[in-house]
Write a structure and sequence with these properties.
Helix content: over 70%
Shape: globular
Strand content: under 5%
Number of strands: 0
Largest sheet: none
Order of helices and strands: HHHHHHHHHHH
Number of helices: 11
Length: 301
């Protein structure tokens, strides 16, 4: 009974994380309308990191001070926020939020490839190989065919999102190094490290004091920072500890319909038939790969 209750809690958190990150694509789309991508991401990481730091201090806790811990936080920041956040924000100036959610859903595929080829703690099975093949075919359908009728900018933006997805996969695998830490510690540490990198870049590139963002963009930035970053990161690092690196990325296939639905309802976006076919292949791929892992986790909890 206790094991069932524990798994129910983890799956509820997985759904919550999917919703928070599914909504982030729409928040980003609205934010970059009047806020440059680098400045948007710098503000996102700073606000979220400062919020988590305030909560940590309010709880009477302290961030680790060891150099090794902050080196890990910095590396995690590059994989989990600095590079992917910036790439996605830049790409969404020309790419729909729903399409970004679909392309970003391939995280479990790349997480599995990294664990299978590098860490090698999971065996290659027929089902997983099917999942990899289906997911990559789906990604090719979404990018390749969809880009044929577009200028090069569309293809570049879509490839940027896929690159961000690979970063997220690497972050999920590297996140295992924080096992045993309160999830707020790597969340806050990585976000603070990310802000330390991005704020100087924003000052040099965008001169943020000269910007005139709209109220909608500012509200989207606030929601993105508080809910889709600060809260989401705490949940994410907990799930990496409880479900493992591949299991934690299982929220990707839940995130797709949520992200697409929010984009359609809020922004009036539509999907082409090719994108829908690619979505079907991607979801089949990630389901095929994550279900076995979740079954083992369920038995082990």
């Amino acid at each position: 009974m206790e094991k069932t209750a524990t798994m129910t809690t983890e799956l509820a958190l997985l759904l919550a994380l999917s919703t928070l990150w599914g909504a982030s694509y729409t928040f980003i789309k609205i934010g970059v309308e009047t806020i440059p991508p680098v400045t948007l991401v710098a503000a996102r990481t700073f606000i979220a990191g400062a919020l988590l730091l305030a909560i940590i201090r309010w709880l009477g806790l302290k961030l680790p001070r060891e150099r090794k811990a902050w080196t890990c936080f910095l590396f995690q920041a590059c994989l989990n926020s600095v590079l992917p956040f910036t790439l996605i924000a830049w790409a969404e100036r020309t790419t729909d939020a729903g399409l970004a959610a679909i392309l970003n859903s391939t995280t479990p595929i790349f997480a599995f490839l990294i664990t299978a080829l590098i860490t090698r703690h999971e065996a290659l099975t027929g089902r997983k190989l099917f999942g990899v093949s289906s997911g990559l075919i789906g990604t090719a359908l979404i990018i390749g065919v969809g880009a044929l009728g577009s200028i090069g900018q569309a293809l570049t933006a879509q490839l940027a999102i896929v690159t961000a997805t690979i970063c997220y996969a690497g972050a999920a695998v590297f996140g295992r190094n924080f096992r045993g830490l309160d999830p707020m510690m790597p969340a806050a540490g990585s976000l603070i490290s990310g802000a330390a990198i991005l704020i100087p870049v924003s000052v040099i590139v965008d001169h943020p004091w000269t910007l005139q963002p709209s109220l909608h963009s500012l509200l989207a930035l606030l929601a993105l920072s508080v809910f889709s970053t600060a809260l989401a990161f705490v949940i994410y690092f907990r799930l990496v500890q409880t479900l493992g690196s591949v299991g934690a990325t299982a929220q990707a296939y839940l995130r797709v319909p949520i992200g697409v639905a929010i984009g359609v309802v809020s922004l009036g976006e539509t999907l082409s038939s090719t994108a829908v076919l690619g979505l079907a292949c991607v979801m089949a791929g990630v389901i095929a790969m994550t279900l076995p892992a979740r079954t083992r986790i369920r038995q082990a909890v």
